[in-house]
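Memo to structure team: turn this sequence into structure tokens by end of day. - J.P.
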Amino acid sequence: MLDDQQWDRIKNSRNLNDFQSYLRSFPNGNHAAEAKLIKDQIETEQETTDFLRNASFGSLGEISGERKVFITATNFDSRNRIVQELQKKASSLIIVANKQDAEFFIEYKLHIASACDPGLSTAVNACELHTGTLWVHTIVDQNTGRDFNRILWKTTKTK
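Reply from structure team:
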């Protein structure tokens, strides 16, 4: 009962501390999975906001002569699809194993959120809302230790 009461107080909040507090009080509570999902979404939004606050912006033209790319993704399948598409469209690109060897950097983050009541649908993943964000970064100043906080392009797609 106390679990449900606390959940009712915070379920529409956008305050990270509310969900952290709920999860500390009810780690296996009735709403723990949903609280963790919302907490993770808020953390991701905060990370993105912090990143954008400190970033400088450029254009994809800055990498026209660059060939070495480092790619990271929140899941292996997404990374593989990005590599396959790049190799089809730009066969001269070299996929490197770490940021230190790269001339530019592609980052992909996939966020999965619940979009409906899973009890209302029998289809697998029917209630999942997938949002992927792809960033292309380059080095701000090569003399500063390869800082990739320069955004050349960002796109977000939801399915």
